[in-house]
Amino acid sequence: MTTLIALATKHAVVVGADSLGTETRLMVDPVQLVRYFDSQNGFSLKLDANGRPELANFSQVFDESERMPYNQLLHVNKLFKLGALPIAVMFTGTVSLGDHTIRGLVAEFVGRDPATKGRPPPNYTVNSVATRLLKFLRTYYVAAYPQEYLEQELELLVAGYDRNQRWPTVMRVDVRRDRILREFAPGEFGIAFGGQMDWIQRIVFGTDSRNMVSLAKRSNELLNLYRDRLAEKLARDGLSVDLPEPDSFGDELRLFHNWSLEGLQSNWPDFSEQNAIDCVSFFLRIMIKAQDVSAKLPTVGGDVHIAVIRKEDGYCPVTKEVWTHEGYEVPVPEVGR
Amino acid sequence: MKDKKNPRRKAQDAAPDRIYRTEREEREYRELKERFGVREAIVVQGSPEPRPAENDMKRAK
């Protein structure tokens, strides 16, 4: 996993990512499956009332699997510029598709796409470039994962400027599900995250998205319970009424509909470039430091890469992008400048 | 100390605590996240041009 951040302001969009690459594999702890076996009968398969095994198919085993860190790579660059365009792309998830690294595929896309090869064309948008990049990556993704159950996550954040817009756009590209979502349209500002972000979200949103889902689910359960109790009470009082389900009101009864927890209050749109750099660096370091003391293996870490993209002068790395050996350093040709 | 009256505690004793999520839990989480519309971004509507009051102040200076 990884942490990706894109902070869109009126002056620039600042992007950042860590550089620890983690290969995960699906693992099943045999103890998790013990409930399917009869300990009183030599741990043979338990049978249901119809005499059929309770462990009936592969999907039951698959559902018990956990995606666990299996191997790690240091110095994985997950942040790239797209040719000469004022657009950056970052990725989280698998680091390669078949024989191709994601970095290699992005470089190939840059060399082929009409908007990114050579001089910038008279018109392009972040959305159109991201959509073509998704289509390009999907070809390799589908070939790499012919079986759906082997699929790995691959998500991109694409951030930058349309040819004819003075405000940034940020797109979220979900390669696995072949979907693209506009996080910030021109005129919208703020901060978007990709990959692992629980500790950052606790500061920014007041809680993380898993807790938000748990809270929303619990609130929905309580509304349904209240509906059931009310129906029982009415029945006891001699009234038979079919009360509507909470979901029938659409978003109106959703916990986080037009309401949020107290989080970090920031004037994101008016951040200077330096404010935004400091903020992105702060959040990346929170994730790295929090993982240092958590019970799980760290999956965010290594060097941090940050870049500023401005409409007028494009992509500008603000972390040292060099190859180094025994004190000798050379700029990485495709990133440094 | 184990709470023998707590059935959940008993279930946890049967299998070691997991620190990673299963595929089933991950799938349920993604489905619920979509259903409840949980976003992973803070979006603020900007004011692209200075407000009239700001223009007045600039003129006054």
Written account of the structure:
The complex is a heterodimer of chains A (337) and B (61). Chain A contains six helices and 18 strands. By secondary structure, chain A is of the alpha+beta class. With 61 residues, chain B is mainly alpha-helical. The longest helix of chain B is centred in the middle third of the chain and has 13 residues. Chain B is elongated, with a radius of gyration of 27 Å. The N and C termini of chain B lie far apart (73 Å). The model of chain B has no long low-confidence stretch (mean pLDDT 67). Chains A and B meet through strand 6, strand 14 and helix 5 of A and helix 2 and strand 1 of B. Strand 14 of chain A pairs antiparallel with strand 1 of chain B.
Q: Topology, please?
A:
The complex is a heterodimer of chains A (337) and B (61).
Chain A: E1 3-8, E2 13-17, E3 21-27, E4 37-38, E5 44-45, H1 58-63, E6 66-73, E7 79-81, E8 87-93, E9 96-97, E10 100-101, H2 102-112, H3 126-144, E11 154-161, E12 168-174, E13 179-184, E14 188-195, H4 198-204, H5 209-236, H6 273-292, E15 305-310, E16 314-317, E17 322-325, E18 328-331
Chain B: H1 7-14, H2 23-35, E1 41-45, H3 52-60
Major sheet summary line of chain B: none
Binned, the helix content of chain A reads: 25-40%
What gap, in angstroms, lies between the N and C termini of chain A? 28 Å
Show unreliable segments of chain B.
Answer: none
**Radius of gyration of chain A using CA atoms only:** 24 Å
**What are the secondary-structure elements of chain A, in order, as H or E?**
EEEEEHEEEEEHHEEEEHHHEEEE
Proportion of strand residues of chain A: 25-35%
Outline of chain A? globular
Please state how the strands of the largest beta sheet of chain A are arranged side by side: 14-1-2-15-16
Number of separate helices of chain A: 6
SSE string of chain B, helices as H and strands as E: HHEH
The chain pair forming the largest interface, with residue counts per chain, is: A-B, 48 and 27 residues
Structure summary, number of beta strands of chain A? 18
Gyration radius from CA atoms of chain B, angstroms: 27 Å
Task: List the uncertain runs of chain A.
Answer: none
Mean pLDDT of chain B: 67
User: Structural class, from helix and strand content of chain A?
Assistant: alpha+beta
Main pleated-sheet profile of chain A? 5 strands, antiparallel
Query: What is the total tally of β strands of chain B?
Result: 1
